[in-house]
């Protein structure tokens, strides 16, 4: 009798806790800023409810869609084409807060760079599955991956979006590492990329300001260091139990983007160490179960795809939380499944759905 397919319920539950539990915090963080809007204080909250419901539907469809179809050349190249066209299209759009990262549709914004990350993960997993037997023949195994990654990064940087570009590189590198590339090549690649990354970091005035503000935020607390200082104040005043849900002060026009990039700071201020630890535990569970799925995947493609999806969530969560805590310079990377915004939520729900589908086929005794 055929084995009944069951997905990883622990992974599913951790995902739902973040995606739907965060709705309360999004309302708390955004209500003061939306209260003067004609749609009232529920503006961002209702949008996120809609995105969360749509994301749940996409996750459900992805669970039922055999992940093996994603390695078909037609699917792989279609995903890359959609991502590339979207990234080119945003460069001709109107800037929002100095950046061209969104495509507008009926009052909603779509961020193509979010889809590009998933497309690169799928492409990298598909290529390396066929070439991992010669993974250390770098010219053979990694040239296609390098071309696609550099191409996508080249389209993302002009937006400008340094954070997403570097996150994409890190995620692709982790998939390559999982495929078994020798350490000497990884070390050599890191040495080659670091000077380029450093040059990009200091080449633009606003990025130099962010770097200096990261190193010495209190020296210019009213200008370049304002974001980080307000974030640290929010985190520091939360203590163990927090001020209480809805009672945060920093979200009241002090903390920039409190419902988006800095929502972790709002959680820290209102729910304290207990709330932030709960969020960290959920991300730790997703990372653990994702690696577990990868270790039990029935084929190399499933394993590499699971590693890439796990990295997609874990890397961005690490960067965002580190940014909020002052461990990394501020970047425009949202907290996956938690921050307000449709593009990130939908893509991450789709990715988790694919991961859950891989878990259905996992070997029980691996």
Which class do the helix and strand fractions yield?
Answer: mainly alpha
Largest sheet: 2 strands, antiparallel
Query: Order of strands side by side in the largest beta sheet?
Result: 1-2
**Mean pLDDT across all amino acids:** 88
Q: Please, how many helices?
A: 13
Helix content: 55-70%
Strand segment tally = 2
Order of helices and strands: HHHEEHHHHHHHHHH
Distance between the termini: 21 Å
Model regions low in confidence, pLDDT < 50 over at least 5 residues: none
Domains (count): 1
Radius of gyration (CA) equals 20 Å
Report the portion of residues in β strands: under 5%
| Shape by Cα distribution | globular
Question: What labels describe this entry?
Answer:
mainly alpha; 67% helix; globular
Précis, in short:
It is built from 13 helices and two strands, in the order αααββαααααααααα. The chain has helices at residues 9-34, 43-64, 73-90, 112-131, 138-141, 143-156, 162-178, 183-203, 205-215, 226-238, 263-296, 300-324, 342-360, and strands at 103-105, 108-110.
């Amino acid at each position: 009798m055929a084995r009944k397919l069951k997905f990883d319920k622990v992974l599913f539950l951790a995902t739902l806790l973040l995606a739907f539990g965060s709705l309360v915090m999004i309302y708390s963080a955004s209500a003061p800023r939306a209260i003067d809007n004609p749609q009232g204080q529920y503006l961002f909250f209702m949008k996120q409810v809609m995105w969360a419901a749509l994301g749940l539907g996409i996750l459900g469809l992805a669970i039922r869609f055999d992940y093996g179809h994603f390695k078909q050349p037609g699917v792989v190249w279609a995903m890359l084409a959609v991502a590339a066209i979207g990234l080119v299209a945003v460069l001709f759009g109107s800037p929002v807060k100095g950046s061209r990262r969104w495509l507008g549709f009926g009052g909603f914004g779509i961020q193509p760079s979010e889809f590009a990350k998933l497309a690169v993960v799928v492409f990298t997993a598909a290529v390396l599955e066929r070439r991992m037997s010669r993974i250390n023949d770098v010219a053979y195994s990694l040239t296609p991956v390098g071309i696609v990654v550099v191409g996508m990064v080249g389209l993302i940087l002009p937006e400008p979006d340094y954070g997403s570009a570097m996150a994409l590189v890190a995620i692709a590198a982790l998939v390559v590492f999982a495929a078994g590339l020798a350490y000497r090549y990884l070390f050599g690649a890191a040495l080659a990329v670091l000077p380029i990354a450093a040059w990009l970091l200091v080449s633009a005035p606003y990025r130099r300001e962010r770097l200096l503000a990261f190193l010495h935020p209190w020296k210019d607390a009213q200008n370049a260091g304002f974001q980080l200082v307000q974030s640290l104040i929010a985190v520091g005043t939360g203590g163990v139990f927090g001020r209480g849900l809805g009672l945060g002060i920093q979200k009241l026009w002090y903390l920039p983007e409190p419902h988006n990039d800095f929502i972790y700071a709002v959680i820290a201020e209102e729910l304290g160490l207990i709330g932030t630890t709960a969020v960290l535990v959920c991300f730790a569970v997703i990372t653990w179960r994702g690696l577990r799925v990868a270790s039990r995947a029935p084929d190399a493609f499933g394993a590499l795809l699971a590693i890439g999806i796990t990295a997609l969530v874990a890397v961005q969560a690490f960067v965002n939380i580190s940014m909020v805590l002052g461990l990394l310079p501020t970047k425009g990377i949202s907290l996956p499944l938690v921050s307000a915004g449709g593009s990130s939520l939908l893509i991450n729900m789709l990715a988790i759905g694919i991961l859950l589908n891989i878990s259905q086929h996992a070997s029980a005794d691996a």
